[in-house]
Amino acid sequence: MEKRDKRQKIRTVLILEVLLFFSGLLIYSQFVFGDRFLAFGTFADVGSDTVQQYLMHYHSVVNHIRDGNVSFWDFNNGFGVNVFQMNLFDPTLILLYLIGLVRGANHIWGALVYVQILRILMAGLAGYLFLSEFKLSERSKLFAAYIYGLNGFLMVWGQHYQFGIITVYLPLLLLFSERTFRRKRFRVCLPLIVFLTVIDSTYLAYMSCLTTGVYLIFRVLLATELPVKERLIRFLKTCLGMLLGVLMGLCVLLPTAYVIFRVSSRLESELSLGQRLLQGFVPMDGETYLTMLYRFFSANLLNKNGDYAGNNNYYEDPSLFASIFLVIFGVQYLCVLWRSRLSRYKKGVLYGAAALIGFCLIFPLAGIVFNGCSGYISRFSFVLMPFFALVIAWMADRFLEGERLCIPALIATGALSVCIYISGYALTTQPPQKNLILGMLAVSLLSMVLLLAGQFLKKTKYRRAFYTILLLLAVSDMCLEGKGTVTDRGAVEKNDTTCLSDLYNEDVKEAIAWLKETDTGFYRIEKTYREGIASMTSLAQDYSSISAYNSIQNGNVKEFVFNSAPDLLFDGLNYYCYSEHPEDGELPVFLGVRYLLAKDDQVPDTYEFVRSFGTISVYQAKEYAGIVSFYNASRAMTNEDFKAKCNSRGNQQSLDKVLLARLGIEESQEELESYQAEAKTKGSTDPVKKTAEDSYAGDRGTFTLEKAGNDSHLTGTAEVPSDGYLLITVPYEGGWELTLDGEKQEILKADLGFMGVRVSAGSHTFSLDYHPPLFKAGCILSIIGWLFYLIYLAVMIRNKKDKRGVKNHDRL
């Protein structure tokens, strides 16, 4: 019997994976067999982050490994970023990195579609394993796991390649939590899956662990066969297993959390924590609820890009689709649960779980809490998908066993689906999408008819036919929806002549290689033109620049750009692009842009022509343009005064003069005046004249700066004419240590976003070293966690052997 069950499970898994594989090929056929990549790159497409940001990150990882420049800091990403901002430990992305290393970074583009299909296969399998923990038939698990493998969150957010893997990790987390609670085999895997989730994404791990904690509370409530004390002990042991997994992953979790909470301004809010939580009990507007209703039926009924008719945008509105059967069976679940053979108490608990899901959708509190209590966001919808699959499987079994459904509710759901799809058809502007919606409407009607027929045709001989048709309808529905997510999109063509031709332009490669060979110092390069990719080509082409697109941009740098360099802003406070204003020649000089790459003669007069490489011309700054510069002490002012001065200027040209002549420093007025007086007694050579505040008279010094092995270590020299400050246009961020003439110095925040340090007249040597904050502590704690885990594993293995020994003895 046991062997037969095992064979049946293997057969179910094989059928599931085959169905998902061919569904993936069908959905993504234009990317597998056609002339496009599964990468949305045009600015008109709401999913352009794929090309504009994420693909460039993958190129950067490959470049750094190939160059041997493996460090915790990356200067190719704008002004520089902590690499813990990047997704380094997603196993499917590691596969992409390996492809890039073996075959070349340009092959990553073609591999994206196969990575997405792989995630679908993994999600379906994870969903099946989770459902296998419950008393469900193999056919209902196949049915629900297939739907889960193509769930709406994975099909929408998975195309960004950053969030997709969580749809694999979450059901596994729930699975091993369930096994640990029940004391079943493989419960030792719980800390491992928590560890993998934590090192993948702090953000998603927080949501997943919070969800698992709530799930365990309901398990405690439902485990009435156990004494209360035993339930609580099992709950605590399961939570300890999860905490052990978190402890094992602190080497990544702590430095990543530091970036999120201390460097990025993403979680900042003007409201207190109490005020934010209270806002969570205020209902949202009607448009939000209407959008939510539509997205239960499909994510593609309200268009996608500029003509999107939903509340927010295609990605940020809730992803709630899990086939038409979620809508049908979800309503039926609420109507027929009370008829089940469960006790009243358990029915009450399950209705409570349904009410909690409803509360999470109706009120913004869940979105606020899941977003770190900073503000409402709907990305948490992935946590609902395993439970949607569980409801679908449970209801499918009831239907296939001939249990009664609520016919009035079924008719009402059918009428609502017709109205929703017809409305979506009217709203949709693209003919291909209209055809897909008509297909989904047909599937919806056929599903209703089938379920109604099942209420009258009760004989066993009809059950298999009903199931086959039910599965075919689910396949049709999921494939139509999946196809809709990639219809009417700005996918990059394989023979693209804009972003791809510039990204892999041999002339650009030769120019950058020549610059690295002839000028070995550390400096920045920028382009005066933009083709396809706005800001992140520096990551793929392996050079340092100031243009960047980063969702969790350094908050200090954001303040500098907003107040002192607004012309860098391209599309919001996280998107910087110099090529939008290439006529500005003073700002790039100030920021250490020593060379410009141009395709025409429209280059600022502060730069002069050096050499051409085919279509690319190289221009060099006429005067010193370095990442390190000097300001006489008398030129310094507090950051508050500097900010006020910048805000009084009307354009970037006048701001550039302020940047080149004055320095904001994070010191009190008393400290600043004391230092200026001290410097003056030593012979300050550049007194500030009210008539010439925006001109810097006098010697600015000479400097060198080089990378010492990798981006985390810089060394340089400075020869300055008087006492003052060095400005280093590297983001002011915890983790940097500055040594001047062999002694560690306090790093001051300068010009709102960069690093500054006091320096006396004369020649100096200095070094900058980056050590990720909390990384060392995280590693120590992770080692302790792994030791605990190995001890736990050894004890479990020993206990298992002892039990086997006792059984063998009893047999003898």
Characterization of this structure:
There is one protein chain. Helix content is about 55%, strand content about 10%. By secondary structure, it is of the alpha+beta class. Strand 2 and strand 3 (about 80) form a beta hairpin. Helix 1 (about 1-25) runs parallel beside helix 6 (about 140-150), helix 9 packs antiparallel against helix 10 (about 200-220) and helix 9 packs across helix 11 (about 230-250). The longest helix has about 35 residues, at about 775-810. The protein is globular, with a radius of gyration of 30 Å.
Brief overview:
Helices cover 54% and strands 12% of the residues. The chain is an alpha+beta fold. The protein has a 5-stranded antiparallel beta sheet with strand order 14-15-21-17-18, with no helix packed on it. Strands 5-8-10-9 form a 4-stranded mixed beta sheet.
Feature tags:
single chain; 812 residues; alpha+beta; five-stranded antiparallel beta sheet; four-stranded mixed beta sheet; 21 strands; globular
